[in-house]
């Protein structure tokens, strides 16, 4: 006899007599609560829980944590308890109130095939006839679980076969669905999940641990899932993995109800360690912790009734310290009936909160599903050649606009620009780092005092301290330049140096240009490929079975590779021209730069060679110091005027200094640095233009004829080829069927909400 074959109880929350039904079948539930539970049950009947997060209860815990006993107290049925029959697949209980006699139907719900691969749609299979005797439920569930765990065998064979514990699977995500109706039941859905495994026994499968954890997580991770966390008091709290998994998905404890089971098995003297949970002082939950005591296996074998079980539970908490000594404030967290009442209240509150959200989610999902249906491709065309040609023309036209440039952030040209700027800086950073003073033993302080000339600030893009090109190269001191000049002299007259010295310095920086240029070409190629890939999908992915998209992608990749090769070939030529030797027809720019750099180098050198004179000249020019304070400069300027040398500028006084023996080196430095400015701007523009002409714009040239020829749609086999390409993909047909079924579920659920007058 099942312990739950009775429909009433004599034990209330404080041990007094009361009128309660079995578990959540309490007939005193308000009509409003019953109406809300009925509504959610109706929504579950539509199958819309696949698409919408519906409120439900999930019971979790470690193996042997007392979950089954807790489920029995809620549902009023008896679950399998024999050795080897622990929960190995989810068991869904769908309770519904009915005026008809008590009845239970068992279904198997398959969401994966026998190989564990997901099915396109869940498959429901009735398992046996309707049950009208509660005592038959336990055996039917046991057989149903064996059918789930042996997916390669017909399920019906397990209805009448002899008991055999051999199974193909140790656990399964497919589940048993119990639909129980009767006059004493509430409308409710909850699921009993397999117990979490701490370790596997000898010969067991380690994968079962992770499989069960993932299965449990798939339920309790949903925001509308009320988690019933069962914790056995006979095991150390911190060693129970279900608690840690619950905290992962409900870290604030807002939708978890903790349930302590087996309090009678707590080692003597350890009872006090569990009381902080009941007082919510430890591992606090918004809905608190409860403690229940269910019948032992021996009690069940002796046929204990539900009334007797509740009475014994009441006696245990009323007479057993420290439970009996708890403050009355915490007594409401003891006993199954108190748990069930609180559980029902929490679930109904959640349903009340979620129903308006569910209605909105249904409306949005219906709209999204209809839009998804509208986005599906049309059935195969009767004129596939014209359709393919139209797709190609539309694609090439849009690509042409992208290659030409569209004023949108993140478009192709906007995305390429950082690579171009990176290339410009890389070439700029090859500038020779000339220093107009001799190399000292420790030149760090002097080197820091030499800065880029101000006239380069604007034309080089406002170079700053972090982007000073010459800082990327080792300093070249003036005595090193002079030494190279002397070493290169052959038949030159004194004071003259061969031009090969300038050429050697020019070759040093032009030899560094090929690598940054090729990097630019590769970056543009990669960026272009990404944009093309993003453009191909919306144009061709929905056509046929994807063959057209695949072939167009391959053809464009090959063509783009050929254009990249052409760009690199042109870059190679340009670099070779620069390496061939210095040449420019821009004499004016070269001369202007030469004079500016020579003046810049001389000024810096004078500041280090004759600091007193330079300081006096600067003071005289700025007049920051009164004239009497610089009598020397004033007297010199007055004396020059007295002998008839009018119009002499104070800066000209430095020409009176003895000739600088480094003058030839200063000229070499000015020549090379001036030529760099001319050549660097030229190569930056020419390489960028080459990549743009050959690769970016080049991709658009002759692309349409290339696609026509590569696809073969301009030849005699065009009709056959296009017909094959236009064949509808089975995945598209399956997607359409899936969307139609989803739309049917959603619309049915929407009608249910209207019917019950939400």
TrEMBL record:
Disordered: region residues: 1-30
Presence of keyword Nucleotide-binding: yes
Database matches in PROSITE patterns: G_DYNAMIN_2 (PS51718), GED (PS51388)
Residues covered by the GED domain: 665-758
Biased amino acid composition, Low complexity: 1-13
Signal peptide: none
Record-linked InterPro entries: Dynamin (IPR022812), Dynamin_GTPase (IPR001401), Dynamin_N (IPR045063), Dynamin_stalk (IPR000375), G_DYNAMIN_dom (IPR030381), GED (IPR003130), GED_dom (IPR020850), P-loop_NTPase (IPR027417)
Domain Dynamin-type G span(s) in chain numbering: 51-356
Family matches, as Gene3D superfamilies: Dynamin, middle domain, P-loop containing nucleotide triphosphate hydrolases
A GO term from the CC aspect: microtubule
Keywords tagged on the record: GTP-binding, Hydrolase, Nucleotide-binding
Pfam families listed in its UniProt record: Dynamin_M, Dynamin_N, GED
Keyword Hydrolase: yes
Sample GO molecular function, one term: GTPase activity
Name the record gives this protein: P-loop containing nucleoside triphosphate hydrolase protein
Phylogenetic lineage: Eukaryota, Fungi, Dikarya, Basidiomycota, Agaricomycotina
